[in-house]
Amino acid sequence: MSLFSSSSFAALALAGLSLAAPAGAETLQQGGTLRIASLNSDLDAFDPLTGYSTDSWAVLRAVTRQLVTYKGSPTDLKDDTTLVPDLATSWDVSPDGKTYTFHLRKGVTYSGPTDREIKAGDFVYAIKRFCDPNKQVAAINYFNLAFSGFKDYCEAFQKVAPGDLTTAKAFIDSHEISGVHAPDDYTLVLTSDSKNYDFLNILSMNFVSPLPEEIATKYFPDSVEFRQNFPSSGPYFVEKYAQGQTLVLKRSPRYSAELDPVRAAYADEIVIDFTTNNEDTIVQKIATGEADLSLYLEVPPRATIARYLKDKNPNLHASNAGSANFITFNARPEAKSVGAEALRDIRVRQALTYAVNRANIVQTQGGPISAEPLTQIITSTILGYEPFDPYPTKDYQGDPEKAKALLAEAGFPNGITFDAPYRSTAQFEAIALTVKEDAQKAGININLIPIPPTQWYAYIQDPTSRWDISLGSQFAPDWQGPSTRMLLGGWLNSDASPCGTGNVHSICYSNPELNKLAAEAFVSDNPGPIWTKADQLVSTDLAWIPLIEKRKIVLGSDRLANWTWSSLAVAADITNIALKP
Length: 581
Description:
Layout: H1 6-15, E1 33-38, H2 54-60, E2 68-70, E3 83-85, E4 88-93, E5 99-104, H3 120-128, H4 140-146, H5 150-157, H6 165-174, E6 180-184, E7 187-191, H7 199-203, H8 213-216, H9 224-228, E8 236-242, E9 246-251, E10 269-273, H10 279-288, E11 293-295, H11 302-310, E12 316-329, H12 338-342, H13 346-355, H14 358-364, E13 371-373, H15 400-409, E14 416-423, H16 426-440, E15 444-451, H17 456-461, E16 469-475, H18 487-491, H19 512-522, H20 528-541, E17 545-555, E18 560-561, E19 565-566, E20 571-572, E21 578-579
Parallel strand pairs: 1-10, 1-11, 14-15
Antiparallel strand pairs: 2-3, 4-5, 5-7, 6-7, 8-9, 9-10, 12-16, 12-17, 13-17, 18-21, 19-20
Helix pairs in contact: 13-15, 19-20
Protein name: ABC-type dipeptide transport system, extracellular solute-binding protein
Subcellular location: Periplasm
Signal peptide: 1-20
């Protein structure tokens, strides 16, 4: 039985609004320390090259800038979709839509280990660094298609043996990417082989942040030493980083509101504590004001959500986010287990989707304020979404008998067993246990394998790891609105994302019809209907099994003012939230 009133949840969900008071009613001032308590024992990444979680992006927002970005929204994540100039003041586009010429803002400097001015060549170096064999960029599929010559450059770079910074630097210094160059210090020219409707959106991601070559080449990507000597292009710099303990960011003395029209940088400093690794403790600290926000807390405890709703507490902030949880499959050629081989049969995948009770999963996440059932790959806040359910069941409760019949038809009349890793957090454990319990009713036994969150990606990307299905897979849009490329044109598009290590979830899905539709969408002036068709194709084929679309719920302390959502981080914008006097 639910702990909550479904009617009150539904009303809030439909409103898509925070319970907080409008930001305009608040008096804002600069100063104070913004305190953040982390559920993880450290950052999963603090390098724009490798940072690809919403939590790492929330922190990178404070120390990086891009050519273009989003201002943030006081109302809802899906409202933060307007691109604005950031380090670029303006840009020109060629008539064929393939070449962008950016004109950079003058006078903006780094902070931290260097205070020199940011130049166009720093973007060129950062992009050339994407293919470093010591650590490849986390979303290479975007850039294989975005920059002319990038794929060939990367293939050559991968022949350089990892483990030696000198050889990596020598390759970067002696090789060029034909579609990336800086004719002078304040002009950056980027060229694609084809027109891309979302080219500027791709450039808004933290990956495309400038880095000074003379600093970054001294350290292995995202090493402790790199983090401690991070060359910040944003309003804050790293004053202190102690692995597993704390990260202290201080506003740069060179920060200029005139040169950064997007990030107000109200707080004097931002302190992240990595020693509070318990959900209840984090919630208690926020309630008492010891902490102002959390990091890596996907969903607050159900009892906490219920209490905040009952009390109409304005410090509960909820927004539609377009994020989702999925069951994904180990489709690597190396996967030869009975379970992995069976899942190559569409009937087995259909049996698994019928075995899932999505209504139960929604309740484990806190009810409709936190999640809603999902039956398709793309989600409600991104381009091409049209509600679609290829395998409907009554009230999303599943159909165990239909699942059993499909298994028998596929040659498994006595059921089947799957090995299933999941991230060992309360949110993912709740999903895993619910899926396991419901699947048993359909004759599917699931052997759960808990994996610490900091080891998750390494585990599923290792071809020797034991798993058939993943219960720890999730998605958040890289940007709200026209971000469908990430899923249908990226992760599931085998032309853009090769099978195996380096692909976010080691996805090895290949569908020539999908790839063809993606190619059509990239160059289209109206890609929405094409993505709708592609979504229906892969959702029917069960490339993944969608479980729930999540709403983002964030708890804040009484000290916070000017609440602002950041769509890239799918979280609070720590550069625009202020502290009350």
